[in-house]
Structures are given as C-alpha cells and as structure tokens.
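Regression test case RT-17, inverse folding.

Input:
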C-alpha cells in the first residue's frame, strides 16, 4: 500500500492499493457512512432515457459515494462498496458500487479516524515490502502449496501423487509428482521469498533434491520435520516455533507467536487475562504488556479507548487476523486478551 496524502480539511486519506493484501487492509479500515472517492465507470445520464438495446457505453468518471454496504471476497481479493453518489459529475443521490482491486487509487473521508485504522494503513505500507513465504507441506501421497499472506495462510494448490501403496520408496516417482509441485511453487514464488518444505518422513528431502537437480535457480529451501503434512503441518511448524527466524518477520508469524505465548500464560494461570472488562481493568492499572485484539472485533466495536490506554503505558498493541488458527483461538476468548506485566488480582 502507498499513502498518497492526507487532507485535514475533509479528514481524508488518499491511498493506492499495490497488492492483494492491501484489499484486506482496506476492508478493515472502511466503515458504513464513510465517503469514498475513486475513478469508476458509469453510463452517462442521457443513456438512462434510452431503451435497453440502445444503451450507451459506460464512461470513466470520478464519483464519491457515501457507503451503505461493504462486501469482501478473500477468494478473489476484491472489495465492493455500495452507496449513494454524493459527489461527481452526474447521478447525485443514486446508488453506485465501487469495486477495488490491486492497482486502484481512492480517497477515504471519515468523520473520525480511529487510531487503529490509521495504524493499519501505516502497517500495510511497511508490510508491502516484505517477501511472502511459500510453504510446501507434503508426504508420499499428498502435497499442499501455501503462501504466507499478511492476513494469514492461504492454500493455493493441492496435489496428489497418484502412487499406490504405502511403501513407495523411490526418490522421484515416474508420475511427475515432484514436477507438478515445483510448477505450482514457481507460479507463486516471488523474488526473495523464503521457501519452506516440511512434512513427515523423507519425502520432503526427496523433493528438495529434485529441486536442486531440476530447478537450480530456485532459492535454497528450508527443510523441517513435522508430524503432519498439509495445512495442519504448517500450523504445527509455526506453533512449535520451528523456522522462527524466517517467519518472525511475517505478520502472520508474529501474530501466531503472540497468541501461543498468551495461551501458555493462560494455561498455567500466569500473566494473562481475557475478556473486555478484564482487559480494560488491566489496561487502566497499567498492567498490559501486550494487547491482542481480533480484527473483526475492531470492525464491530470502537476500542480506541483501551488501545490508547495501553499505548500510553508503553504497552504493545497487536491486531490479530481472524483468517488463521491463532485468530480462531483469540476469537474463542472473546476477541480481546492481554499478556500482563504483573497480576492485577
């Protein structure tokens, strides 16, 4: 994401969406009643009076809509904002839908910007420059290719080996299992992306050898042993802290590590608390070392008071994505929790 400017006259921020994760950040910033101004297409007013067969082509124009409804598709990484046209060359007072994908530029005007919203925009700018880790989690029978996005893990391909029996011991099957995996990896691998191969048994080592022989230009993979394959294996890797030196720089890795620490403290009745009233009381006492808040809870509630309280006491605030397992754990705790400096009761 790129922040193009901020205008205090109308309390607006102009941004450019540079990658698909930026659409997710935008979803977490927009609210009903915001005024969004962007370039869009719409038929000219004259076309409204013509019969359907003679409708004019859509023309590009800049319109500002007052948002009434927001829809986000994480499969397509597309956001739709429906509202009433409030500024622009035509059709004032009518409904229009703005569609946002990577490459779009827009201006968002709010009555009041929450500190969490401005913080998310700034974080999105920093995260855009970070490479996305690519995972291959496999055994003899199946493989999953996944990408570490800023908001969580995303499975991008699933491959079956087609092998028969459980005692297949050749390093490279004649079925092209490894070749298909590598073709899927190459489709999502970016410059400087860390590549992590994991799983039970020896299949991961065989794949790494195939990669060295057939794709010498691909980055050297980091190979880890896990008890499971598939997405479960990737989550196991992250929860155990394996590859922490690689994953800690990623947003998802940071969030999963923080929630794991929280759960450990809760499990031993240690320095942790959860629930809105408990966390607010701990924040008021200056006891919060790290505040963890689910992104969906921030969309639903105004938590600026507790966030400012924690930041004012030099505590850390971490907004956790609801799109990965750690987010589901935090959701089960009410969507808000804290690691404490000391117990308050």
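Golden output:
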């Amino acid at each position: 994401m790129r922040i193009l400017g901020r205008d205090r006259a109308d309390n607006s921020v102009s941004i450019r969406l540079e990658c698909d994760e930026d659409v997710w950040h935008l979803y977490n910033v927009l609210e009903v009643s915001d005024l969004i101004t962007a370039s869009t297409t719409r038929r000219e007013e004259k076309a409204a009076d013509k019969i359907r067969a003679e409708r004019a082509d859509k023309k590009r124009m800049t319109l500002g809509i007052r948002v009434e409804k927001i829809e986000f598709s994480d499969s397509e990484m597309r956001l739709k904002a429906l509202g009433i046209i409030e500024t622009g060359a035509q059709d004032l007072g009518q409904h229009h839908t703005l569609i946002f994908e990577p490459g779009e530029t827009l201006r968002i005007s709010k009555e009041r910007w929450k500190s969490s919203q401005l913080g998310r925009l700034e974080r999105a700018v920093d995260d855009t420059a970070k490479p996305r880790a690519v995972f291959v989690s496999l055994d003899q029978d199946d493989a999953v290719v996944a990408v570490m996005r800023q908001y969580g893990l995303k499975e991008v391909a699933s491959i079956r080996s087609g092998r028969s029996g459980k005692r297949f011991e050749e390093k490279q099957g004649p079925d092209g299992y490894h070749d298909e995996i590598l073709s899927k990896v190459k489709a999502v691998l970016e410059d400087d992306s860390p590549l992590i191969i994991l799983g039970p048994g020896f299949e991961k080592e065989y794949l790494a050898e195939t990669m060295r022989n057939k794709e010498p230009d691909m980055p050297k993979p980091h190979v880890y042993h896990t008890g499971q394959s598939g997405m479960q294996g990737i989550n196991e890797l992250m929860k155990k802290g394996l590859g922490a030196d690689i994953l800690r720089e990623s947003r998802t890795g940071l969030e999963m590590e923080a929630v794991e620490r929280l759960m450990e403290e809760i499990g031993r009745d240690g320095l942790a608390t959860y629930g809105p009233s408990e966390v607010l009381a701990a924040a008021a006492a200056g006891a919060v070392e790290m505040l963890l808040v689910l992104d969906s809870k921030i969309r639903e509630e105004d938590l600026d008071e507790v966030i400012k309280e924690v930041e004012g006491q030099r505590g850390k605030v971490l907004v956790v994505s609801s799109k990965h397992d750690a987010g589901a754990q935090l959701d089960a705790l009410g969507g808000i929790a804290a690691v404490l400096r000391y117990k308050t009761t």
